[in-house]
Amino acid sequence: MPDIYQIIVLSTILIMVLTLFKDWLSATLVFFLVNLVFLTVGIIDAKDLMSGFANEQIAVIFLIIFLSSVIKKANLIDAIFYKFFDLKLGYKRFITRMGFGITPLSAFVNNTPLVAILIPYVYNWAKQKNISPSKVLIPLSYATMLGGTITLVGTSTNLVVNSFYTSSGHESLKMFDFSIVGIPLAFTGLVYLIFAGWKLLPDRKDALTNFSEQTREFLVETIVKKDSKLTNKSVQEAGLRNLQGLFLVEIVRKNSKLSPVSPKDIILENDILIFAGETQTIIDLIQADNGLSLPDKTNFPNQEKIDVVEIVISANSDLEGKKVKESNFRAKFDAAVIAINRNGEKLNGKIGEVVLKAGDILLLLAGSNFKNSSEQAQDYYIVSQIKQLHQLPLWKTLIILFGTVSAFVSSALGIITLFHAMLLLIVIISMIKVLKFNDLKKSFDVDLFLILALSLSIGKAIDKSETDNLIGAYFINTFNTPFLLLIGTYLFTNILSMLVTNKAGVAIMFPITMAALVRQNL
Fold first, then answer.
1. What is the pLDDT, as a whole number, of residue 188?
2. DSSP structure class, residue 215
3. With CB atoms counted within 10 Å of each terminal CB, which end of the chain scores lower, N or C?
4. What's the CA gap between 136 and 126, in Å, rounded?
């Protein structure tokens, strides 16, 4: 029978999984609360809680992220792939070239900045070939994930597993310990994508096309300004039923809404008119002398040209969960949100009241400083082509290339630890003034750091309460051979990763798996 501590650990983890799955609270807050419960009841102590914050492997994760930011800033990968995505290629040849080119690279470069660098090139190739972006962007994501299985540094999850492994008293895993499984897995996955997987991919149009063809899915907000010639006229009299490329969806008047809008509805001063429309008519709507204007925070006076830019909100973005009006887009990025797409979902009401989610596609009116503001942005990815070049002197580029290769090779040969190699490389890069301290701060994902550090103490709670032995015994009874144990571990970890985060899945399954291995003398 489980004791009281084991019951607390099991029930707390079940609540954690449910909370993360239902997205009731942010992942960072959930990890904090779980640790607070374990600390309060005495399952872990302060030393256990703080140990993750000084873990070498977690530090390595962020040093690699910093290095990836340098590679991105130095334009090294851009230079490689600028000519790589040839328009003469057919779809299958393109997927083949992209897959076998990116997968080995993603074994050593952090996936997130790598994808961010490549999205504009892949997206632009698809648009020029009149191919649905989803048919190339999803393979791009899979190719980087497959590459992450090849080496220790291929993905942060590998390093998290290594941190658990070293914390349990074992020697650190080597750089290519994953390769014997990772290389065949990556090759098989790529072959499947090239010859079969692409047939199952959705054929979704990009947001700019959808904005033209499915206007009800995109909203544009305008205000009836003071002394407007539209005031006190009906919708029909104001000519708002016949705007080319625009449809009046809703009128917001103080706390009330008129929807659907009748031709006889009267327009009043300060009414907010919500239109659905085509992209090319938006600038006409702004510039026309029709008595309407965009909200003050989205208006760009004294600007001859207004660019419409398409972005997608990234996972763990600081913008997620905020209303558009609270996101401060104008001040942060010199851009204004004018339309939102959420995977075909129909959104209603004022743009400013929409709560942003990861994966939302936004159309922005971009000011003159938008490109500069976007260079260090971690909250979104630009998916329409905006060229951002950073030309470095050749000698600095060679130092970065040589230093990166040397760091990984020396670590693989056991000459120096990966932590020491990465730390030395970051110092050298800072000395030659390629990377500034502010760049390091902007590359630092606080939420990711907290989740990684706190996941280690959750693992300690499972271990110290002997919950791992309890569940491990059930595992051995159910999966009573090494092969079945491998299958069981894979299935349960996979399910947890789908329901919550892969970091939480590892935190839960690692001590259980280790306990099961000990029981089978493996």
1. 94
2. G
3. N
4. 7
Both tokens assigned to 39? 């600390």
- Reading the block at residue 202, the tokens are 């959705």
Handedness of CA 164, 167, 168, 174 (dihedral sign): positive
Q: In angstroms, rounded to a whole number, what is the distance separating the alpha carbons of residues 14 and 23?
A: 14
Phi-psi region of 503 (alpha: psi -120 to 50; beta: other; left: phi over 0): alpha
SS3 label, residue 19: helix
Q: Are strands 307-313 and 361-366 parallel, antiparallel or unpaired?
A: antiparallel
pLDDT tens for 36-46 read: 999 998 898 88
* pLDDT of amino acid 1: 46
Looking at residue 387, its pLDDT comes to 41
Q: What is the pLDDT of residues 442-456, one digit of tens each?
A: 667 788 888 888 888
**Residue 189, pLDDT score:** 92
> 418, 152 in Cβ contact below 8 A?
yes
For the chain, the 3-state helix, strand and coil shares in percent, each to the nearest 5, are 55, 10, 35
List the strands of the sheet with 220-224, edge to edge: 256-258, 246-253, 272-277, 220-224, 292-293
Two tokens, residue 133: 């972006």
Residue in this structure with the two tokens 């009836």, named with its chain if needed:
224
Q: What residue ranges of the chain have pLDDT lower than 50?
A: 1, 208, 211-217, 279, 301-305, 385-389
Cross-strand partners of 266: 234
How much is the pTM? 0.60
**Quick one: pLDDT at residue 190?**
92
Q: Where are the alpha helices (DSSP H) in 129-170?
A: 134-147, 156-167
Q: For helices 56-73 and 111-128, what crossing angle results, to 10°?
A: 40
Q: What's the Cα-to-Cα distance from 296 to each of 239, 284, 365, rounded to whole Å?
A: 24, 17, 13
Q: Would you give the DSSP letter of residue 234?
A: B
d(C-alpha 458, C-alpha 511), whole Å: 10
The per-residue pLDDT for 187 is: 94
Q: Which of 160, 77, 210 is nearest to 502 (CA)?
A: 160
Asked whether 186 and 150 are in contact (CB, 8 A), the reply is yes
Length of the chain: 522
